What does this fold into?
Amino acid sequence: MLPSAGVYYFPWEINSSVPEGEVLRTFGRLCFYDLARSKAVLTAQHSSAQYRVCVDTKFVEPFQAQLGSRYMVLGEAEHREGEGPVVKARILTCVEGMNVPLLEQAIQEQRKYFHERQERMGNSTS
It folds into this structure.
């Protein structure tokens, strides 16, 4: 069975407020990978801050980790004691060369569209 499409989260939005089990998508540069512990870390720059997203890679191994390359992950949020949120990866894809500013713009446009559609649906039922 395929996982659901997942809601796009920017790496800087992934924190303890993301609901447990929420299916999400995010992206970042692979800066760390430990096959023995099935753990990877993606990083992303936003404004002047560096953000880290921990990824559990148990369900996508083995894969050819290319440190420094950009990856997109689809998985579920899991809150672990002492670690904060971890994305349990179902799909982990290398997307090196992806136009990140364009992706960020597309995510914002998609959110705007969903918000407007939700408002229209709410107004039509009233």
